[in-house]
Specification:
The chain is of the alpha+beta class. It folds into two domains: 3-90, no CATH class; 96-231, MucB/RseB, C-terminal domain (Phosphorylase Kinase, domain 1), CATH 3.30.200.100. Helices cover 44% and strands 23% of the residues. It contains seven helices and seven strands. The protein has helices spanning 3-12, 18-30, 32-51, 69-90, 99-114, 126-134, 219-231; strands at 121-122, 152-161, 164-173, 176-184, 189-196, 199-206, 209-215. Strands 1-2-3-4-7-6-5 form a seven-stranded antiparallel beta sheet, with helices on both faces. Strand 3 and strand 4 form a beta hairpin. Helix 2 (18-30) crosses helix 3 (32-51).
């Protein structure tokens, strides 16, 4: 096994100390192949935890001879294939009409990151960020304080999607930056996800607002953030 593979599994299993974890995350940030491998391992692990069924064996089987090790391996292989097939088959994608907008979201995120303009207003206080945005937009975007759940509000900026101004909330998760674009939309929509140029993108609509999330943060944590935002009233 290569050194990167060994570190990857140790990182995912929580076996690295804080310094080693930060060092490995820096390596992933600079290495798209390593970052993609980490993402695949997380998604597979999550699928196994979520989709696998567990049953207690009937009493008549207790005390009987254990099957050969090869039988267990074969059964595990079939189960793994079934889980992967189920996961790929049920992954929710953006509607065709939203693909171009998803690309715009990624472009806006990269532009702000590389241009050093993540914030127009830098603050972790939602009561500072929300009024600032409301005074500059024809709508008042919801601004959630999620620091207690591990997603720190770092500020916001004005950006543009489809040629219209939009609120861009900026959250931080460890060394990762997540842009959350919010704009009015009347239709409700469930969560959808996609991957664009190494970035994870999530979108949903609720209570008159459409949310677009984009980051190089892993899929599981992006799902967590989308779920937290969708649950806010």
């Amino acid at each position: 096994m290569r050194t990167d593979d060994t570190k990857l599994h140790a990182y995912l299993d929580g076996e690295l100390d804080a310094a080693a974890s930060l060092e490995f995350e820096a390596q992933m940030a600079a290495n798209p192949v390593l970052r993609a491998a980490c993402e695949r391992q997380r998604e597979l692990s999550a699928a196994m935890r979520e989709k696998a069924d567990y049953y207690k064996a009937p009493a008549r089987f207790y005390g009987k001879r254990q099957p050969a090790r090869g039988t267990y391996a074969l059964a595990a292989s079939f189960a793994l294939v079934a889980i992967i097939a189920f996961t790929l088959g049920t992954q929710v994608r953006f509607p065709a009409g939203s693909d171009a907008l998803a690309d715009e979201v990624v472009t806006a995120h990269v532009r702000a990151t590389l241009g050093g303009r993540l914030f127009d207003v830098a603050s972790s206080d939602q009561h500072t960020v929300k009024p600032w945005l409301s005074a500059r937009l024809p709508y008042s975007p919801p601004v959630a304080d999620l620091s207690g759940e591990g997603f720190e509000l770092a500020g916001a900026r004005l950006d543009y999607l489809a040629g219209k101004p939009v609120a861009a909330l900026v959250y931080k998760r460890r060394q990762h930056v997540v842009d959350v674009f919010v704009r009015p939309e009347s239709a409700e929509a469930g969560r959808a996800s996609a991957r664009r140029d190494g970035f994870n993108v999530e979108s949903f609509a609720r209570e008159g607002m459409r949310y677009w999330l984009v980051s190089d943060l892993n899929r599981n944590e992006m799902d967590d953030l989308a779920r937290l935002l969708a649950a806010r009233r």
